[in-house]
Every structure is written in structure tokens, then in C-alpha cells.
Amino acid sequence: MRRLLSTLAVTSCLLAGIPAISWAQSLPGLTIFSGVKGENQLPFRLDFGGQTNGWDRYRLKISNKKMKTAVARFVISYPNYYQGTFDSKEIEVKAKGKKIALSQVKWDKENHVLEIFPQEPVPAGTDVELILSNVKNPSSGGMFYFNCSIQSPGDVPLSRYIGTWIISIS
Q1: For residue 2, what pLDDT band results from cuts at 50, 70 and 90?
Q2: Which of 59, 70, 108, 156 is the least crowded, having the fewest Cβ atoms under 10 Å away?
């Protein structure tokens, strides 16, 4: 009987830890003293845990409430101390769960900017997910602020700050 109870206790402890591990890099939780207002923090998910020097897939999300205008260009800027790499051929955009055709993706390494150009403007009021696959995380961990701006379509495109993904690599 003792052996059974010991086995159940150990098993329950192991099972209780699994959700915490898988949830750790899913969406930002409560972030205190980040310098970014709560309403400007955007949700994200790192599919492979955000380990230093490891390969990962970043799922950067923008809610339909933030998408107040149609989008002709997404601009993601990141800090100069982020030393990871991106595969511009492995970037996709999903709107309402469907893949959007892209006309171009530019990675400006010197200015720390990713620019994503959909073939057709993404409509306002749409849930959007920017998926960056084949990302090589930096060799040193830290907290990295990825800022998102959008540019509206038209003759006089307007740039607008959407929010910030606070990504932690450990």
C-alpha cells in the first residue's frame, strides 16, 4: 500500500510540472516593471521553448482589436543586442487562421528590422499571426522587446505603432 501511495505521489508531482513547462513560453503573463504598458503588450508563443543558441519558431500575434486599419506592411524592430538570426524565406502571415500570400520579406540586419509585405492588404479587424520559422535564438539569453508597427495602404501610407512582444530567451 505504501509503495502504491509513493508511486501515485511521485507521478502526480511529475504530471503537475508538465503544464508549467509547456506554458512557460506560450503567452506573456504578468510582466511588472517592463516599461511597456499592459495594453501595448502583444501575445506570442515560442514553439520550441526559447532556449539560447537553439532553433525556434516565433508566433507573434496581433488581436483584431489592435488592427484598426488595413495593413500593407508589418514592421518588426528588435534591439541591437539581440544576436539571433531569421530566415526571411520561412516567414508567413496568417489572418483569421488562413495563410496570406506575401510579396516580399526584407530583413535589414544592420538596422534590426524585419519588414513583411502581404500581396493584398490585410483587412482591419482581423486576428493576425506572424510566424517566424527557422529562427536561431541568440547565444546569450535575455529579455528582448520586439516592437510592431504597421503601414496602411494608399498613396500616403500612415505608420502606426501596434504594440510590443516581450520575448525572453533563457
Answers
A1: low
A2: 156
